[in-house]
Amino acid sequence: MSAAAVAPGSKGRVLLAYSGGLDTSCILAWLIEEGYEVMAYMANVGQEEDFDAAREKALKVGATKVFIEDLRRELVEELVIPTIQANAVYETVYLLGTS
User: Fold this and answer.
1) Between residues 64 and 2, which one has the greater pLDDT?
2) What is the pairing mode between strands 65-70 and 36-44?
3) Are 31 and 37 in contact (CB under 8 A)?
4) How many Cβ atoms from other residues are within 10 Å of residue 15's Cβ?
5) pTM for the complete prediction?
6) What contacts 68, CB < 8 A, 6 or more positions away?
7) How far apart are CA 59 and CA 68, in angstroms?
């Protein structure tokens, strides 16, 4: 199947922002039941996560592919550092870098 081809009989292809938790796993199953081809996407931004277990769960539920992208460097370079450099604060108290 080419990158642009959608599985026969499918309503279309969906990329689901997936956490591996109950909510996104139920949505994944529901989208499949509704006739969509579903791929799951996870972003590693430094959270404590068992990405391998989440990948396996998404595939077991029925995702056709699972993409896990390491975005830690981008998060720090493109969001955290500029936030600190701008001295961005929330309600004049909390540095936005902590959020």
Assistant:
1) 64
2) parallel
3) no
4) 12
5) 0.78
6) 41, 42, 43, 44, 51, 54, 55
7) 13
Q: Are 20 and 48 in contact (CB under 8 A)?
A: no
Task: Specify which of 1-10, 28-37, 86-95 reaches the highest per-range mean pLDDT.
Answer: 28-37
Q: Between β-strands 12-17 and 36-44, what pairing exists: parallel, antiparallel or unpaired?
A: parallel
DSSP per-residue letters across the chain? --TT---TT-SEEEEEE--SSHHHHHHHHHHHHTTEEEEEEEEESS----HHHHHHHHHHHT-SEEEEEE-HHHHIIIIIHHHHHTT-EETTTEEGGG-
Amino acid at 50: D
What pLDDT shows up at residue 79? Answer: 87
Report how far residue 49's alpha carbon sits from residue 4's, in angstroms, rounded to the nearest whole number: 31
